[in-house]
Amino acid sequence: MRDSPYAREIITSEVGESRIERLFVKGEKQEEIRLSWWPKGNLANRPLDLPEDDFIVLLAHGIRDGVLSPQFLPKLMVAAAKLK
To answer: What per-residue confidence (pLDDT) applies to 15?
Structure first.
């Protein structure tokens, strides 16, 4: 697991060059989720852009691998219902 002055990696899931990561961000003293793009194994200095179908696959891997908590989908459904 990676550890830097900024954050410590807790768990990561990868699909190709795309990653979803749970990090402990030291300055904020909290766990956060990062979506990132790693072409040729190097973190890109630009956002991760994905077609919706690939984004769904990445999220599914994140759920399966434990990057996203078991409560993620129920919380998402509740949040989406409140938007109506």
So the answer is: 97
How wide is the angle at C-alpha 24 spanned by C-alphas 29 and 59, nearest 5°? 130
Q: Which residue has the tokens 């219902």?
A: 81
**Which residues 6+ apart lie within 8 Å of 62 measured at CB?**
13, 20, 33, 68
Q: Which pLDDT score is estimated for 34?
A: 96
Q: How far apart are CA 20 and CA 11, in angstroms?
A: 9
pLDDT score at 84: 77
Q: What is the mean pLDDT of residues 47-63?
A: 96
What are the sequence ranges of the domains in the chain? 7-82
Query: Quick check: 53 and 38 in contact, CB under 8 A?
Result: no
- The H helix count followed by the E strand count for the chain is 2, 3
